[in-house]
Recover the amino acids of this structure.
């Protein structure tokens, strides 16, 4: 029994359910890429699959549309794989368990992959149709978007004829994007030394945080478990001598971290546990209206690992304390838009080094460079190193756009409302495509998807249909 069978548009939800059966975490896209190739072959469509598993599928124009500029449809095939702590699913080998609830599509206990599975579903439904009138369609589906836009960086687009691009990687119905921030990943590595210590051990778990997308939701002021981890260690260090044994926080640099786990050796374990309890109450008051379900647990534990020595412990705590987190600057041009931010989404303690990974974003290159330098000078003062990876350019706002004008007119005709056209702090691949396609006229749009990059991710059924109807009308209008 198919879960989404009775939903409209039927073809869109059919393909969304089909791809939801295929595990597709970043760096593991071969299966979903091959599915796209099988689709193209079954529909007798030309295609290209490169060595990275990026895919381009072509469909010729319908009669009467041959002289129009081809339309490039674009999305990415990978998804952020997050799950609740109680969910046993292996998201590298198992598909999603979809359900329909309260007008939304959900995945039970995991991320839904609406970002960006809905783009793939929209494109396949268009390519499958024998009734929709359209110019030549060129569907570009990339790998590795969630981990640095690797596919968009390296894909060869010289085969494309179109200059009009519709990116389907947005999550706010009625809002069309025409610009976004650039960004990159900061990988910080701090050498550490371990030393025998016979103090009792205490395990601390930080759970219940909302988390969220580090671009789309960084301005909401939600707590970061990594930042809370630093606060616990700092407060505890002032109360009783301690040494860090292990530290695990988050799994994605571009997701605001929801859970963190610490193991510490402490001279006075009861005093340390009392500190954790007091700090939990303070955090509840601080985040009562923003992130209300934060929970700390401190309990006795044991482990064969050697703790860090005192100097290494101090350096780790200092790094967690000194490095900035969250919004750094708001846009001067667009009210309410974040200009520059960073999100420390991952922290892990290894045998000989402590590692942190952050997603940096800015729509202003000078501000981005300044933030990178700020982090560099902080981390080097503790003897750590920083490496920037996966950097991508901002998508610059273009003053005149035929595509935007056309969409604005059609949206008003269809719904009697003005289409909102703006920029976003989160990154989309359009900036990289603009560097590869001269004179590109592009927008990004999509249906309402809430709490992306979290196990609470859900997608509006009504919104999926509304965006589908709008997309079809745009494509059919000469």
């Amino acid at each position: 029994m198919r879960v989404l069978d009775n939903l409209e548009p039927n073809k869109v939800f059919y393909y969304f359910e089909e791809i939801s059966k295929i595990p597709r975490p970043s760096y593991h896209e071969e299966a979903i890429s091959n599915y796209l190739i099988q689709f193209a072959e079954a529909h007798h469509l030309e295609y290209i699959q490169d060595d990275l598993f990026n895919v381009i599928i072509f469909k010729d124009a319908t009669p009467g549309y041959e002289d129009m500029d081809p339309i490039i449809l674009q999305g990415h095939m990978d998804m952020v794989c997050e799950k609740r702590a109680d969910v046993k699913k292996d998201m590298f080998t198992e598909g999603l368990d979809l359900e329909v609830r309260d007008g939304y599509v959900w995945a039970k206990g995991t991320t839904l992959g609406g970002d960006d599975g809905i783009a793939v579903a929209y494109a396949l439904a268009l390519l499958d149709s024998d009734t929709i009138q359209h110019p030549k369609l060129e569907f570009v589906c990339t790998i590795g978007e969630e981990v640095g836009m690797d596919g968009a960086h390296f894909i060869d687009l010289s085969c494309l004829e179109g200059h009009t691009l519709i990116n389907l990687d947005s999550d706010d119905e009625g809002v069309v994007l025409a610009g976004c921030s650039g960004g990159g990943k900061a990988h910080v590595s701090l050498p550490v030394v371990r030393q025998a210590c016979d103090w009792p051990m205490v395990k601390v778990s930080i759970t219940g945080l909302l988390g969220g997308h580090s671009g789309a939701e960084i301005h909401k002021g939600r707590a970061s478990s990594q930042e809370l981890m630093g606060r616990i260690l700092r407060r505890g260090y002032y109360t009783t001598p301690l040494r860090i044994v292990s530290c695990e926080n988050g799994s994605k640099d571009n997701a605001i971290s929801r859970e963190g786990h610490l193991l510490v050796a402490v001279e006075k374990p009861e005093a340390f546990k009392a500190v954790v309890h007091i700090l939990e109450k303070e955090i509840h008051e601080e985040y009562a209206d923003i992130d209300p379900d934060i929970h700390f647990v401190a309990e006795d534990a044991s482990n064969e690992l050697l703790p860090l020595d005192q100097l290494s412990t101090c350096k780790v705590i200092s790094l967690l304390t000194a490095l900035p987190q969250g919004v750094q600057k708001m846009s001067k041009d667009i009210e309410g838009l974040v200009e520059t931010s960073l999100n420390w989404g991952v922290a892990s303690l290894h045998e000989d080094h402590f590692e942190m990974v952050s997603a940096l974003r800015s729509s202003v290159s000078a501000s981005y460079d300044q933030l990178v330098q700020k982090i560099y000078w902080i981390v080097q003062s503790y003897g750590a190193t920083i490496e920037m990876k996966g950097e991508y350019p901002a998508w610059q706002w273009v003053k005149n756009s035929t595509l935007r004008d056309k969409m604005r007119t059609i949206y008003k005709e269809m719904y009697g409302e003005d289409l909102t056209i703006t920029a976003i702090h989160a990154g989309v691949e359009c900036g990289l495509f603009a560097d590869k396609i001269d004179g590109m006229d592009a927008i990004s749009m999509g249906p309402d998807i809430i709490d992306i990059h979290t196990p609470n991710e859900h997608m509006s059924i009504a919104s999926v249909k509304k965006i589908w109807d709008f997309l079809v009308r745009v494509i059919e209008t000469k």
